[in-house]
Design goal:
Blueprint (H helix, E strand, L loop, with lengths): L1 E8 L26 H10 L3 H14 L4 H8 L5 H14 L5 H8 L5 H19 L15 E10 L5 H19 L5 E3 L4 H9 L4 E16 L2 E14 L2 E15 L5 H19 L3 H8 L2
Parallel strand pairs: 2-3, 2-4
Antiparallel strand pairs: 1-6, 4-5, 5-6
Amino acid sequence: MGIKGSSRSLRRALGCVLVGVALASTAAGVSRAEDPSTTMRDLAEASDFRVRVSAALVLGHTRPEGAREALEAALADGHPAVRVAAARALGILGDPAAVSALQRRLGQDSSSSVTAQLRVAIAELRRVGSDSPSDDARHLSPGVRYVVDLGSMRNHSSIGGSRGEELTQVLAAAARSRAQSMRGGVFVDDDDSLRQQASARHMPVITLDGNVTQVTESRVGGGVQVQVRVEFAVRRGQTLKGTVSGAATTFGPGSEITDQGRRKLEEDAVQAAVQSALRGAEDGLLVAAR
């Protein structure tokens, strides 16, 4: 398979290219107030993948006894959105003992969205493991000039239903992975310590929203071509500072394609479109933060 990508900046105030990253969970089907054993059972047995996604995230945030083991088992769930949620929840949970399970899964999973989230979780847990026991919190470096916060994540393409929700998860994982390395800013995600430090320093907060706007499939040269376009919006408070879009095309050989093959082409195209859209993100975000 091959991939090619292109990007398009929308010229707004100051003529800057502004980009956005967003991450939103699938609609929750489990209450955080539920008994942990019920949540773990939902994660392992619920027929609706959205309930399993929600259960994974609840376990990551509430940290009940046995959460790490339950989440590690969920890394092998049959639905990629659940595996993404399990990896993210392990990162939130903050137990470096989960690194080995994440690494094992990294060598087995064929989903690009899952592998992106696995890498993010591994990096987060390794950072936690390298902190001194008396200081587990992350600290804002002197060079940080703005905070990247989480906004909405949507799929407005022609693909709906559960598959459309999967693409939302793919977009989220890819954008979150890219946001981790943005210079000049800090992506706080679920880290309350970073949020508090940023607030104390009166740092500007940039909220980022994302959208899969187009997914099309066509037959080209005896193979299958999938084209994806994504768009990100950048807000400071309620003010829209700018938008940017990215596009990518993936190719698969052969006149026939399986559902798994189609899913792989779509996920790879979303990943590449995100990279296309977020290229050169830092300069635009710095302007938006002023």
